[in-house]
């Protein structure tokens, strides 16, 4: 089985300083070693990072068009939390910092989730797993 030691998710953003301020308001920090005026290394946890990249800089990594995430979903970031309370707290912080809350929380018994769309429209999902899913 193939395994990896770190993950870096790259997300283009229209206004890097505003995006940094948004995530700082949620309590996250940035690695200054990998942060400049073109990108910022958002620290989500041990070995979990999101590179927030200006759209112009992000475009240099692909020949494909970068869709506007406010109008198209090509994927989303899902993060585990330690409790339902942490899920709700982070969604509340995101909303206070300017996020859109596209749906109500979902409770599946073994898993509780809620999410937000950041300033650029990227979808972030937060989940708390309290058990194992029922067998199909």
UniProtKB/TrEMBL annotation:
PROSITE patterns: VOC (PS51819). InterPro entries: Glyas_Bleomycin-R_OHBP_Dase, Glyas_Fos-R_dOase_dom, VOC_core. Keywords: Lyase. Pfam families: Glyoxalase. Residues 5-129 form the VOC domain. One of its GO terms (molecular function) is lyase activity. This is Lactoylglutathione lyase.
